[in-house]
Write a structure and sequence with these properties.
This protein is an all-alpha fold. The protein contains 21 helices and no strands. It is extended.
Amino acid sequence: MSARGVLWGSCALVVLACLALLVLIVTTKLTRTRRDRRTSALVAPHRTDLLAVASGEDQDGVHRDALIAVDGPARDALDDAVVDLLAKVRGVPAEELASVLLAHGAVDRAPHDLKHHNTIRRARAAHILGLCHVGAALPLIVDALRDPAPEVRVAATRALGRLGEPSAAPPLLAAAGAERAVPAGPAADALEQMGVGIADALRDGLLATSPTTRTVSAYLSGEGSFTRSIDLLRLSLTTDEDPLVRATSAVALGRMGRAGDVAVLLEGTGEQQPSGLRRACAAALGDLGDPSAVDGLRELLADPDPRLAEIAATSLLRLGPAGRAALDGAPTNASVESARAVARLQGSPS
């Protein structure tokens, strides 16, 4: 076969593949649309009862009992609607909606569905167990953090946050740094919901082999002012091999550090340091609010990195009269002038 024939054959295969993909997309969309319409039609007769329970307007339980009595094909569709509403309500309405799922057997089926071959079923099961606060399912949900499907891992992460059990913090932190990782954002949100009981897990996380786990631990240590982490945050800032871990540790120290941390933060602004770390440390010095940082920040006003100079100027404004005086006395450049303009807008003498 000639080269031209091979080329035409390849082009034809590409066109056919594109057409097949287009057909698949259209078919999937049509199938989903039909399914959504059918679900909506099945739920429609019960929408008044749903809204009454979800809004707390079901004082005598009549609407809840009506939902519990639903049977046949409408039951699964109704359970899906209940799950959606459960993610949006709290208190008594949430308890009443959860009782509907319990009566329908959805809660009892959820632990088994966590092992189902269907990804959607597994994710929905984790979602239900978290929404209904099924504490006994904690080990199963922790196991789901290692699920092959990312949507199941995220559902399990959010379920652990709703359960709020601090004992799940170590495996969740480990999952954030695993090969099949849980996204750092949902992991941090879930860990925050576990409260002060995660303090020891955060300390251990700062020493983990995964930089993602160390970053999440540093971030949450600062967000929650977990003072037990301070010594390890100082160590991370100065010795960690990952620049993001060091920068996140700097931010955390700015929020809850001591006057003695000014020196280590100023060291992080040195010319030999990565730009992200230098900026984080300069901002942290403003958060820390200790006037002993004035001289070091004043030197940064002339730095070749304009963003760093701007952050230093802003931090000086936050250090009170001594910082404002240093800003007033500094040679004018764009960063200094910008900070002075901010000071004028804030009504400062600068």
